[in-house]
Amino acid sequence: MNTHQLPMASIVIPAYGRTVLLEKAVRSCITQDYPATLFEVIVVDSSSNDANEKMVNALASESPCSIKCLRKKAEGPGPSRTLGAQSSKGEYIAFMDSDCEASPKWLRSGILAFGKNVGLVQGQTLPQPGAPHNVFNRSFELRQESFIYETVNIFYSREAFMKVGSFRADEDPENLVVMGGEDTDFAWKVKNLGYASKFSSDATVYHVVDVISPTQWLFDKRMMVVPRIPKDFPQTRKFFYLRYFFDQVQATYCLGLIGLIGVLFSWFSLLLFLPYCFVRGSEKTVAMKGLKRLFRIGFYFCKDSCNFFQLLRGSIKYRSLLL
């Protein structure tokens, strides 16, 4: 595909509250370096009030491209994306979250990345430039293709999308932080149909950096749905650490946990805790350097304990072991 053959494209943004962030997202979309007659912006809002709808309608009056807002009940972002895609006209459908801002060449770069038999293109996502960074700031960063295929920034060909048809509803739809997992489910269904995937570092969006509470930092309920991924798509096992652990941190945590329990029988079992201390203590970090890393290990042990129990809950619920 070349720039002289640009197709009709649709941008779909699910929304739930957060009108200020949504406005920034929409403004970044309507100013794309793409012919205004060849793309549309569709916001699908599930908020309890009409603030988002009024804002989108106001922007529509000044937008060079087609823009509209659809309303529906809260079911999580998945069904909102489905409605947006089914209401769209584009040969390609670009999904972005409402707490992101697209770079000017985002849409063009994502569309041009498609080729023969490519059904989906994942774009690069970076934290908002200049935002502060510490333990209680949360953002999202993705610089290479991820087997999770987060819909924070992803493109599908219409053909591939319609063959799968819809994202599943969320298990906790009326919460700003949903359970998630529907994006991974959808992408792997597309790949299982035989479509290829690509990554575009030029199709960049910038994700907001949120300030979160200590409780939010400690407890991530989304971890509970992760064991469902290898249950539904066994081929994804290879992407997890030693196939049965979320990552190296969780693997060494489990080893350390065995060591702590083993203290009841022998103090030498504490040696099993050393790999965890090394992995957590050697991570690159902005704060808590030097001897402060010892405190960091303690803080993260609490967080990793919460992650372990969430993964254990999910393993039992979905009958799929992943710790």
TrEMBL record:
Regions crossing the membrane: 255-279
Query: What terms describe the molecular function in GO for this protein?
Result: glycosyltransferase activity
List the keywords (alphabetical). Answer: Glycosyltransferase, Membrane, Transferase, Transmembrane, Transmembrane helix
**What organism does the UniProt record list as the source?**
Glaciecola petra
User: Superkingdom of this entry's organism?
Assistant: Bacteria
Domain Glycosyltransferase 2-like, by residue range, is 10-155
Which Pfam family would be a valid example here? Glycos_transf_2
Q: Does the keyword Chaperone apply?
A: no
Gene3D superfamilies hit by this protein: Spore Coat Polysaccharide Biosynthesis Protein SpsA, Chain A
Please identify the protein, giving its name as recorded: Glycosyltransferase family A protein
EC number of the protein: 2.4.-.-
Which lineage do the record's taxonomy fields give for this organism? Bacteria, Pseudomonadati, Pseudomonadota, Gammaproteobacteria, Alteromonadales
